[in-house]
Amino acid sequence: MVAAEAKHPSVYLKTAFTTLYYRFGAFFILGALAVGIVVPYNDEILQAVWLGAGGGKGTAAASPYVIAMENLGTSVLQHTVNALILTSIFSAGNTYVYCASRALYSLSLDGRAPRILSYCTSKGVPIYCFAIVMLFSFLSFLQAHSGSAVVLTWLASIITGGILISYIIISITFLNYYRACQVQGVERRERPYYGYFQPYGTYVALVFLTLVLLGYGYYAFRPSWNVETFFQSYSMQILSVILFFGWKIINKTDSVTPDKVELVWERPRIDRYEDATTEPPLGFWEEMIHIVGFPTKKGMLDA
């Protein structure tokens, strides 16, 4: 999605995808392993927060990282972790606003949303899409009231189910792309980015995500059947199936076979754009320095 607005998509996105593995491994896998070592499952503070006795459920106090710092007895580290959580929330919010506004903009271009949403400012920002997406951020205030928090819980569960479905669709899309490359004789290694361990890695991800999606609301069946919990957990799954087959039946769309998949699409246009861009791409640290306003090597040369 960000490729459409990247100055050098073949360079920047390749670097982003390559470093993603290291960031994911360091921040998520190693982070979860570390916090699982210092905060056991039977930690008193963790159990109190989860059961609501500690009064911190749904807040930063429920974070196992904060609990770990509390167990160490250092108040400074608690505030440090809270600050890091705040930056993480800001980063996630920034990403979701960007993706949601661009997805709505794309729907408008395809004629599946009001045409007025395709309007952009002189800087290329779909301002009306951005405004609509930002309105949903006010739903976060539902957490401030215990009664309204139920609505927020429903929304969070539905959105989480939608995210899982999105990653399942991404996996299926890649498998179709992989087959199309094989049938049409396209060498993936010649592309700017080449994914390793394929298609086996995608099959593993697809099976794992499907199991998570099916077991997402297992607690609706234990210890007894709960209708509200079931629909809270599986509404998006049911709705997605209805929308998918409903769209195919109403519009009589056909599935594209691997030999007819369009693998070139806008690539020649992108190549011409990158060839015409004389400004060399910036490195990561130089880009960060440029964002905060300090002069970079390129800026000093231009001056």
Task: Characterise the protein shown here.
It is found in: Membrane. Keywords: Membrane, Transmembrane, Transmembrane helix. Its main location: membrane. One of its GO terms (molecular function) is amino acid transmembrane transporter activity. It is a multi-pass membrane protein. The chain is mostly helical. It has a domain of 117 residues. Helix 4 packs across helix 5. The two termini are 34 Å apart. The model has no long low-confidence stretch (mean pLDDT 79).
Layout of strands and helices, then pairs:
Layout: H1 9-38, H2 44-51, H3 64-72, H4 75-109, H5 127-136, H6 149-184, H7 200-214, H8 227-251, H9 267-276, H10 284-291, H11 297-302
Membrane topology: Multi-pass membrane protein
Pfam family, one: AA_permease
Subcellular location: Membrane
Unreliable residue stretches: none
Question: What would you report as the Rg, rounded to the nearest angstrom?
Answer: 23 Å
The DSSP helix count reads 11
Helix content: 55-70%
Q: Could you give the distance between the termini?
A: 34 Å
Largest sheet: none
Overall pLDDT confidence: 79
Proportion in β-strands: under 5%
Number of strands: 0
Instruction: Give me the strand/helix succession.
Output: HHHHHHHHHHH
Query: From the helix content, strand content and strand pairing, which structural class follows?
Result: mainly alpha
Shape, per Cα inertia axes: globular
